[in-house]
Amino acid sequence: MIAALVGLCGAAYLFFRIGFHAIVDAAVSVGWSGFALLCVYGLANFALLGLAWLVLASPVTPSRAATFCWGRAVRDSAGDVLPFSQFGGMVIGARAVMLRGISGSEAFGSTIVDITLEMIAQIAFILTGLVILVVQLPGLRALPMMRTAALGVLIAIILVATFVLAQRRGFALLERIARRFLPAAELAAGEFDQAVNRIHGQPGRMGAGLALHFAGWLSAAFGTWLALALIGHPISFWGAIAIESLLCAARSAAVFVPAAIGVQEAGYAVMMPLFGLPADIGIAVSLLKRAREVALGVPVLLSWQIAEGRRALFPPTLRGRIYD
Length: 324
Fold this sequence. Notes:
By secondary structure, the protein is mostly helical. It is 82% helix and 0% strand. It has 13 helices and no strands. Helix 2 packs across helix 12 (279-313), helix 4 (62-81) packs antiparallel against helix 5 (86-98) and helix 4 (62-81) packs across helix 12 (279-313). The longest helix is centred in the middle third of the chain and has 38 residues, at 144-181.
């Protein structure tokens, strides 16, 4: 909560310092058609990341593809719209696919591995952006933003190492603890461990998931490129990759700030002048992204709540008796 308040105050200060009217004018210049195009891009990104999750959980069928794409939309919407960190969104996303018949062990096991692959792809994406930035603007190596990027990469590497270690050793330990102190939970812990090990035993699927997640990070850069083009301040796609990669690093360094409030705005405001654009254009891009997240996230979260309500009113056993 404190982190969110600090971030909100930081964002408000940027709006005041840069100029509210300039930011809003730039944001609304895209028009309704431009904003609709950004929303279509957002839906396509949900689908791409949902497929990256799906390939870890065989079999791959159209109905399961719809389930995991929706679950990914719920995960991201919860992290972007609700006052949770990204970790809260991950739990809610796994819960969402369970409402559509995916077992708890498969939902959470595949989520853990999917998050790991996404972070590995993020590290590769950030490093790609840093290389582009150093090649295009070699005099920027000593900027504070570069140090922030290095810190973000370090944090991401630590998180990945922690996740991998937990997948290799932690869940087996959890199963032994459950067997000793909570016998009723032993079966669930064992199934969870088996689900993770089953995914790790399919390197082809993990490789496909990693490739799709790297494509997802490139897609995030495309979203920045598209927003700038719609505002009327286009840059090269390479520049968009550099901007988005450093922003990803900053978000990683502030992983516990809900929706990266303030962090995202500051990142865009700092990065845009490096490519010849004013800071207010960066804040306008952030504002458009926030608006798109709300426009897509609210209906997605409402659909999740409707699914939760149906589950509460008509549990699977009761629903089976009603329809029989």
